[in-house]
Design brief:
Blueprint: H1 2-92
Length: about 90
């Protein structure tokens, strides 16, 4: 009976060790997956920040282009007014 008890304890120890090894493997794999996910998230955040910076720069360029277009429109309107006045004066003569 004593040998059977010792054999049972030995078997239980082996099974527990096997489960612990399997569990540790699962934990290691989960940690590796979490680490990979964290790295992917950091890369995504970096890409998003870069895209946001590019978008801000593009918006600034568009605003500057719009301001230049408005200034050009004002200059063209003024030139048209001057030309109109000159034509009116020349037709009176």
């Amino acid at each position: 009976m004593r040998k059977l008890t010792i054999a049972g304890l030995a078997l239980a120890t082996v099974l527990t060790a096997g489960c612990a090894t399997t569990d540790q493997g699962a934990v290691d794999e989960a940690n590796a997956t979490a680490s990979s996910a964290e790295s992917t998230a950091k890369n995504a955040l970096s890409t998003a920040n870069s895209a946001a910076g590019t978008a801000r720069s593009a918006q600034q360029t568009a605003q500057e282009a719009l301001a230049a277009a408005k200034a050009a429109q004002r200059a063209a309107d003024e030139a048209n007014e001057r030309a109109k006045r000159m034509l009116e004066r020349s037709s009176m003569k």
